[in-house]
Amino acid sequence: xxxxxxxxxxxxxxxxxxxxxxxxxxxxxxxxxxxxxxxxxxxxxxxxxxxxxxxxxxxxxxxxxxxxxxxxxxxxxxxxxxxxxxxxxxxxxxxxxxxxxxxxxxxxxxxxxxxxxxxxxxxxxxxxxxxxxxxxxxxxxxxxxxxxxxxxxxxxxxxxxxxxxxxxxxxxxxxxxxxxxxxxxxxxxxxxxxxxxxxxxxxxxxxxxxxxxxx
Length: 215
Description:
The chain is α+β, with helices and mostly antiparallel strands. It has ten helices and five strands.
């Protein structure tokens, strides 16, 4: 009987490991080119013209980030190589993140975040209203600037801030990450890319991020 109980306990423990553990190559992959200076972070590589990025930002990413508060810091990385105005969007988003920092806003999902206001305005315009800004760059900027409540002159001044340039330069790493499985792309500690196809639930994603954050 004692041996039988031991076998049952061993089987249960094995099941627990299989049920709650995560596997490299299935749930995530280690990047060949890690993103530097990204310890204890959850990075999301996104594009304003990516429908799945929009879906995640409406219902998944904010909940995940909230559950991970105090465990990792969230860092949005905009992919400038996707979308007709990808480069312009990256520059504007970087400006707004700097303005948020100056306003004491560190959570990019805060309703007061200028970054969030512009990002959601672009998502809505592009995906819901089918806006393509065919009249040119000025009309594209107008959508984001109006949502954030800042002028073009203010943007033109702030984009020369070294912090803005540093953010844009940091986001150059987005391209190598996006090549692997497209966007959205979630990276933990700058090293581990989550396979989005393996995400089954918010809690599952949270547990995976927690595990990878400790590696």
